[in-house]
Amino acid sequence: MTEPEVIVIGSGPAGLGAATALARAGRRVLVLEREAQAGGIPRHCGHHPFGMREFHRLLRGPDYAARLTKAALDAGVTIRTRTTVIALHPGGLVQITDDAGPATLAAKAVLLATGVRETSRAARLIGGEKPGGVLSTGALQGMVHLNGQRPFRQPVILGSELVAFSALLTCRHAGIRPLAMIEPASRITTRSPARWLAAAMRVPILLHSDIIAIHGRTRVDGVTLATPAGPRDLPADGVIVSGRFRPDAALLLGSHLPIDPGSGGPVIDRWGRLSDPAYFACGNLLRGVETAGWCWSEGQRTARAILAALQDQLPEPAGARLKLAHPALRLAVPQVIGAGAAGSPHDRLQVRLDRPAKGQLRLMQDGRVLASTRIDSLPERRLSLALPHGLGPGPLTLTIAEAP
Ligand SMILES: Cc1cc2nc3c(=O)[nH]c(=O)nc-3n(C[C@H](O)[C@H](O)[C@H](O)COP(=O)(O)OP(=O)(O)OC[C@H]3O[C@@H](n4cnc5c(N)ncnc54)[C@H](O)[C@@H]3O)c2cc1C
């Protein structure tokens, strides 16, 4: 390939969705992927349902990843696997390393689509011994779908967000029968239809409960829960720790590009553009976990912004940094909000909470409410607020008027 016009870092649904759209518009696109195969996280999710939005059919994760990859290749995208990006430099210079050693690549635009990381058991401060059999959902899915292993028979699942139910589907696929899903809050985190899946698999969801100790020397042989009725022991032989995802922003750490402390991902504007306008970002890197279809669609919309940038049709970077003015607010994306225009990829503010909250979510400027919506939500759930197009120059604040 001659020098690419666009480099995409990460070949998950967001990266491949964007790369395909850019190549179909006639641009030279290079995707860099550190794994041996393209496709991102869905490659490890051997279950349905993926692909409705993209291909109008229900696919298993690996088939979906293969289709995304084929669509990109058919459109003319070049995909380099086993290629890790190790540094980002101003103006779209990207340092990589692969079997041939280190090298530097350049492009007019670079799209970051590096996804999320799971929070480890240690970071979640779960006490007890340190036996084998305590896995993140990603590790479980790798063992089951990539290596054909069954690491345990009756684990517990800690968490009840989207990915915890992905773990439940993986268990069903592997003939694993979880003893329970454990959720510290008073409701499950994901939307309630997921509850039916647990009910259909006869897996109880224990609300108001948490794991306070994991037992076993070499293998897990039990867990102790804190429950409203007091401590309770379960004879689990494994623990799947799910939730608390953080953007995989390792590349931003040593770079000139700022990280938003709320999301842990890059600071972007309504065009998905970073402070250095050669860089864009999309997908789970922006805020933690969303579904594959959501990330793919975000990739497509960000591709349109990159096309506009390549034709010098994007407005100059401008706009105020949004201030979060309520303790329940964890993150809002985009963080820099200028006047909007038709076609900007972020015409809605994506918001997540740190704790449950109920009331009016409000975007304020100069004491005026610019946009508002009613919320009654838990952390990790998707919240969004339509962004107005016309905006004054004053500082913008996001707050919650809590219902009593
Ligand atoms: C364990 C788990 C299970 C999930 N299950 C489901 C599910 O069942 N259904 C669903 O809809 N969603 C699920 N999700 C959400 C899932 O993350 C999204 O569906 C989707 O994969 C996100 O797409 P993405 O392109 O943003 O990131 P990813 O799919 O995570 O892709 C990011 C890619 O970037 C690559 N990369 C990262 N850093 C570098 C670097 N420095 N150099 C080169 N390459 C790099 C990674 O190797 C990876 O391939 C799950 C998430 C997790 C963590």
Name the descriptors.
alpha/beta; 8 helices; 404 residues; globular; 30% strand; five-stranded parallel beta sheet
SSE layout and pairing:
Elements: E1 6-9, H1 13-24, E2 29-32, H2 52-55, H3 61-75, E3 78-80, E4 84-89, E5 93-98, E6 101-106, E7 109-112, E8 116-117, E9 127-128, E10 134-136, H4 137-146, E11 156-158, H5 162-174, E12 180-182, H6 193-200, E13 205-206, E14 210-215, E15 222-227, E16 230-234, E17 239-241, E18 246-247, H7 250-253, E19 279-281, H8 292-310, E20 320-321, E21 323-324, E22 329-333, E23 336-337, E24 348-353, E25 357-365, E26 368-377, E27 383-386, E28 396-402
Helix pairs in contact: 1-3, 1-8, 4-5
Summarize the structure.
With 404 residues, this protein is an alpha/beta fold.
Give a verbal description of the structure.
It is a single chain. The chain is of the alpha/beta class and 404 residues long. The protein folds into 3 domains: 1-118 and 245-317, FAD/NAD(P)-binding domain (3-Layer(bba) Sandwich), CATH 3.50.50; 122-241, FAD/NAD(P)-binding domain, CATH 3.50.50; 318-404. The chain has 8 helices and 28 strands. It has helices at residues 13-24, 52-55, 61-75, 137-146, 162-174, 193-200, 250-253, 292-310, and strands at residues 6-9, 29-32, 78-80, 84-89, 93-98, 101-106, 109-112, 116-117, 127-128, 134-136, 156-158, 180-182, 205-206, 210-215, 222-227, 230-234, 239-241, 246-247, 279-281, 320-321, 323-324, 329-333, 336-337, 348-353, 357-365, 368-377, 383-386, 396-402. The strands form 8 sheets. It has a 5-stranded parallel β-sheet, covered by helices on one side. A hairpin with a 2-residue loop joins strand 25 and strand 26. 46% of the residues are buried. The mean pLDDT is 93. The structure holds flavin-adenine dinucleotide. Residues 9-15, 32-35, 40-42, 45, 84-85, 113-116, 118, 137-138, 141, 163, 166, 248, 251, 283-284, 289, 291-292, 295 line the site of flavin-adenine dinucleotide (FAD).
